[in-house]
Fold this protein.
Amino acid sequence: LSADGRFLAAAAPAADGGNDTIVQVWDLESKPSSPSTTRLPGALKAMGSAPPARPGFWVLTEQRCAMLDPLLGREWGFPVTPPGDVTAVAVSRDGRMVAFGGKQGFAGVWSFDRGEKLLPPLIQEAATVGIEFSPEGHRVAVASSNGTVLILGTHLLQEDAQLRFDAPLAMDPLPNLDPRAFAPGRERMLVTLDDGSVRLVDFAQASERLIPSRLDNRSRAMQAVFDASGHRHAVSYGQVMELWTETGQTTNHFILSTPHGSTEDIGFTSGGNQLVAVCTDEHVRLWNTVDGSLQQEIRLPENGGALFNAGAGWVLAGGPNFPAVQGFQLPDPK
């Protein structure tokens, strides 16, 4: 029975002679009830009711440990591949983690949220005969056949929420580590993905949405930044940038082009009135964010490279082939 007594689950070997396990779940509050059916690879080893925080059932076979959601009639989260000699299993109170014990001791902790190992195994002198999480999930008690009980501090980060995108993060991690990718208060973040798109992540709402682009599908985002107000953001696609300003129900959009070369770094001045781009043609260009007009160009020293400091409103120019560092203060460079 499930923890709330509403659902009944039964498991049996597959009738077609395979090595799979068939799990059927009935809703006892629905009459007549036709069961939902889930097929899991491997022979059944154990099953039980999930904690009240996540009503349903956990099922352990030789090849998979899965959480079944009776309301959805399918697996919840991501399946976990158990170690090969499981002698004990436990599910955390929040239903998000599973721990295994084996013939050689503690076998590790996995996450149903991601299907990944969170805590590595610990080789012991005796087999594990019992395992259990503490109520808050920060510790695991491992009982061994030699009469000892080991308490392990998991120190696992308890996520408030998780977001899984339909593309991996950009291979270059720097755009996603840039503080300018965060809005003030760090409640929102612009995430650059490997497919060239940009997503706006709202941590408070635990949601994400695609930042639309009016460029062709071949354009790939390289960098995305907010201004200090969080109402304006810019996305660089190399030789082209998109500038968005959202105030209430009004949205302004500009497409900005660099005459030669592509952008190396972009950012807003502290007041948000100008968008600054350091370009590969050894120029720094400034656009007016109100009307999208190009306001100014600064010629950098040859082979100088540049680094833009948005908060202080300075461009610092230097590099391996340039023996000094020059500072240009914006918006009136001197």
